[in-house]
Amino acid sequence: MISLSPFAEVFDPLESSGGEREHARALLLACRHLPGQLASPGQRSSMLSEASKMFEKLGDKKSHQECRNLLLKFRSTASLCTSGGPPVFGSTAPIPVC
Question: Looking at the whole model, is its pTM more than 0.90?
Answer without folding.
Answer: no
